[in-house]
Design a protein that fits this description.
Radius of gyration: 21 Å
Largest sheet: 6 strands, mixed
Strand order of the largest sheet: 3-2-7-18-21-22
Strand content: 15-25%
Number of helices: 14
Bound molecules: (4S)-2,6-dioxohexahydropyrimidine-4-carboxylic acid, zinc ion
Distance between the termini: 15 Å
Oligomer: single chain
CATH topology of the largest domain: TIM Barrel
CATH class of the largest domain: Alpha Beta
Helix content: 25-40%
Number of strands: 22
């Protein structure tokens, strides 16, 4: 497919912002044509005609990358499959996702990694970068064969869903990750301090009569990961930052040169523990929604660069599972379809520039994965066309995931993906049935 994206504003952070055309051929970016440059310069050269994509009043961005999703396959296909998760991804504007290892079986062996990649290939929608487990079975006892996992196609290491309590193993994981070029994504939780907790420890938990999870559950382990990164000199990436104390610790660590990066998710900068009253188990996730001062701190961390990445922690669960009651229901909310529409609000309100948002949703996640990206001739044509104009309320009609567990229904959206292009193929166009 040959495509010319015309009339849009190109936003490729750190490289170019302004009007221009993107020409795509053979799955790659063939040219970035600035206004006034002669067409002949790029030599259409006959053959198949270009499909023209009209991007007027839209933003042409490098493809969005979600560094933290749960695709559930193998093992939990009633919640999500790799195909349904990838459909949710591209409909939300994501050209790639990094999927966590807490499947059944766990992605702790090369055959599981290969299975995930085969399924993703077959779905033919988003790119999938599998995170392999740090420890066998996510049990925190024995390290996996990370060299074999890397050879099979693993892109990161994480025991996400479970904390890795043994600091000696985490130290080794950081060293091995640095050696093999696999970022270690740390799910920071002290399981002893969290034990029995259902939601944030605070007035709402007290009012609802359920056990709470204090902020220190997270920040204790964030501070440990920072200490281990300093000890080893190896990088570490902190998943789903939810507390003011974590933000402060990461900010201070970065200021003294520690190789720490961090992500948060839309629920942490938009919602507080109050949402649990309204949405019950659909506002239950781990780490839990915190208080207003934490929400503010996460936003400040996004604004000043302490938090590098907006990910979703897309964690689908079946309706019956979420209906089990607040205490019994599993943790997690979906997020692939709503992350961009909600995060564009940060630009509308002036907290982030559009460049900063695209950095946090595309450039930085790729950098953490050790991959390049951008609208550069010769690179694979992974692009997201963003329409920042539509204002609408989030409805279930937006959801392509197999699951529906979201606290965002009814919230204000500030734009959406108009089209998603992976390797030069249009895999999603707003208003059209996605092609598989
Ligand atoms: O809310 C969460 N859901 N947090 C996790 O760490 C795991 C995830 C899941 O797998 O459902
Ligand atoms: Zn996690």
């Amino acid at each position: 497919m040959k495509i010319r994206i015309v009339g849009g504003t190109i936003v490729d952070p750190g490289r170019y912002k302004g009007p221009g055309e993107v020409w795509i051929e053979g799955g790659r970016i063939a040219a970035l044509r600035h206004p006034g440059e002669p067409e002949a310069h790029f030599g259409e050269g006959g053959g198949e005609p270009y499909r023209i994509l009209d991007a007027r009043q839209k933003i042409v961005a490098p493809g969005l990358v979600d560094l933290h999703v749960h695709l559930r396959e193998p093992g939990f296909e009633h919640k999500e499959t790799i195909a349904s998760g990838c459909l949710a991804a591209v409909s939300g504007g994501f050209t790639a996702v990094c999927c966590m290892a807490n499947t059944k079986p766990v992605n702790d062996a090369p055959e599981v990694t290969r299975f995930i990649l085969e399924r993703a290939e077959r779905a033919g929608l988003a790119r999938v970068y599998p995170a392999a487990a740090v420890t066998r079975g996510l049990e925190g006892r024995e390290l996996c064969d990370h060299a074999a996992l890397k050879a099979a196609g693993a892109a990161a290491l994480s025991d996400d869903g479970r904390p890795l309590v043994d600091s000696r193993l985490m130290r080794r994981a950081l060293e091995i990750g640095a050696e093999w070029g696999l970022p270690v994504i740390a799910h920071c939780e002290d399981p002893y301090l969290a034990a029995g907790g259902v939601m944030n420890e605070g007035p709402t938990a007290a009012a609802l009569g359920v056990p709470g999870i204090p902020n220190a559950c997270e920040s204790i382990m964030v501070m440990r990961e920072i200490a281990l990164s300093e000890l080893t000199g190896a990088p570490v990436h902190i998943a789903h930052v939810s507390t003011a104390e974590s933000v402060a610790a990461i900010r201070a660590a970065k200021a003294r040169g520690v190789r720490v990066t961090a992500e948060t998710a839309p629920h942490y900068f938009l919602l507080t523990e109050e949402a649990v009253r309204l949405h019950g188990a659909n506002a239950k996730m781990n780490p839990p929604l915190r208080r207003e001062r934490d929400r503010r701190a996460v936003r400040e961390g996004l604004a000043d660069g302490t938090i590098d990445v907006i990910a979703t922690d897309h964690a689908p669960h079946a309706p019956a599972e979420k209906e089990a009651g607040l205490a019994e229901a599993p943790n997690g909310v979906i997020g692939l379809e709503t992350a961009l529409p909600l995060s564009l609000g940060l630009v509308a309100e002036g907290l982030l520039t559009i460049e900063a948002l695209i950095e946090k949703m595309s450039i930085n996640p790729l950098r953490i994965l050790g991959k390049g990206g951008g609208i550069i001739p010769g690179l694979p044509a992974d692009l997201t066309i963003i329409d920042p104009r539509p204002r609408f309320a989030i409805t279930a009609g937006l959801i392509r995931s197999k699951s529906r567990n979201t606290p965002f229904l009814g919230m204000q959206a500030w734009g959406r993906a108009a089209a998603t292009i992976v390797a030069g193929r249009i895999v999603y166009e707003h208003g059209e049935t996605p092609r598989g």
